[in-house]
Amino acid sequence: MPTARHGRDEEKLVRSASGKAIVYGEQSPRYGNGLPVHARAQGTGHSRRIHPGRRGLPAHALSLVPIADWPLWAFRRRASRKRPQNPAPQVRKALLDQITREGPLPIRRLRGDTESGAGWDWGPTKTAVEMLLWAGELASTRRDGARRLFDLAERRIPAEHLTDQKSDDACLSRLLGHAGQALGVATADDLADYLRIPTPVTARLLPATRLTPVRVPGWEPAWADPDALTRTPQPRRDPVFLGPFDNLIWHRPRVQRLLGFTQVLEAYKPAARRQHGYYVCPLLADGRLIGRADLARRGETLTILQAGLEPGLGPDAPHHFAHACRTLTAATGRSHLAFDKDATDPATAAALKSALDDVL
């Protein structure tokens, strides 16, 4: 059994979210992986595709998934059709008929004038639409600004992919291979979280996947993508802020085990209970997570609302922070960078501001 190095490969899922403090939720992983975030896609009022060749799907939470993988998510669609939250037949028919007539529509239009609600308010219409999405009767491949547009799956999924023929085990075995390819080396628990499936199911199916068992010191039995065992290590990239929904930091136990970093997502907490802020982006530098910043767009300015560095770092840490700030400012099309006066303690603030002065 070989000994593996930790790593990850290409992303098979990209977490989507409605928050847009810096960029839309699904764009922050693109920026964190060195992909461009286009200015038009950041704006509101423009109809845009979610991502070329992908669609919004309940995978790991709500994620962007390659359309070609539609057949592999049949296991979740079948389970969803048995859930008691599915809409009543008359509600289902009314929604499908309206979308058939009018084309892709956001939740707001489907609610009509008789039902209030916005955002995360799961009223009757939103619940019904989301369940039709989970069941595979609807698909979401475009947005209007921040709003997802829902259309009939048969109009958005190519005929060669629009099938539920694969068994649950066949679906999951393939998807676990995808998860292993994305994570590089992982425990059964890591792989289960990537797909949001039970760990015992994952452990049962792993021997039937393309993954190979490996030894990683300090880990439970682990599994690796075969390509990860022979791939030449890539050179380290420039420092970068990861969006709070970046795939690297989805699973907190893995983040702690792999990087020794305590990842916290506080966007859904009341403001008074947040320790690090609202839209907090961890800072990746030299293969480590060395700090974090709560960031926001204010007009043409990218503002650092709160910032912190991990303890015991060397003198390069503030410069890594500054470099990542400069990169993010340019990537999001901002022309200025501001540092709130109460963003951090005085000593850290002085070091960060000095480093920012050097790079801006």
Arithmetic mean pLDDT? 85
Which spans of ≥5 residues are poorly predicted at pLDDT below 50?
1-10, 33-50
Number of strands: 14
Helix content: 25-40%
Q: Could you give the distance between the termini?
A: 49 Å
**N-to-C series of helices and strands:** EHHEEEHHHHEEHHEHHEEHEHEEEHEH
In terms of quaternary structure, the protein is: single chain
**Count of separate DSSP helical elements:** 14
Overall form? globular
Q: Specify Rg, calculated over alpha carbons.
A: 22 Å
**How would you characterize the largest beta sheet?**
5 strands, mixed
* Helical/strand content category: alpha+beta
Beta-strand content estimate: 15-25%
The strands making up the biggest β-sheet line up spatially as 10-11-12-13-14
Write the layout of secondary structure elements.
Blueprint: E1 14-15, H1 27-32, H2 39-42, E2 47-49, E3 54-59, E4 61-66, H3 74-80, H4 89-102, H5 107-111, H6 124-135, E5 138-144, E6 147-152, H7 153-156, H8 168-183, E7 185-187, H9 188-195, H10 199-205, E8 212-214, E9 222-224, H11 226-230, E10 240-241, H12 252-259, E11 280-285, E12 288-298, E13 301-309, H13 317-331, E14 336-339, H14 346-359
Parallel strand pairs: 13-14
Antiparallel strand pairs: 1-4, 2-5, 3-4, 5-6, 7-9, 8-9, 10-11, 11-12, 12-13
Helix pairs in contact: 8-9, 9-10, 13-14
What does it look like?
Helix content is 35%, strand content 20%. The chain has 14 helices and 14 strands. It has helices at 27-32, 39-42, 74-80, 89-102, 107-111, 124-135, 153-156, 168-183, 188-195, 199-205, 226-230, 252-259, 317-331, 346-359, and strands at 14-15, 47-49, 54-59, 61-66, 138-144, 147-152, 185-187, 212-214, 222-224, 240-241, 280-285, 288-298, 301-309, 336-339. Strands 10-11-12-13-14 form a 5-stranded mixed β-sheet. The protein has a 3-stranded antiparallel β-sheet with strand order 1-4-3, with no helix packed on it. Strand 11 (280-285) and strand 12 form a beta hairpin. The model is unreliable at 1-10 and 33-50 (pLDDT under 50).
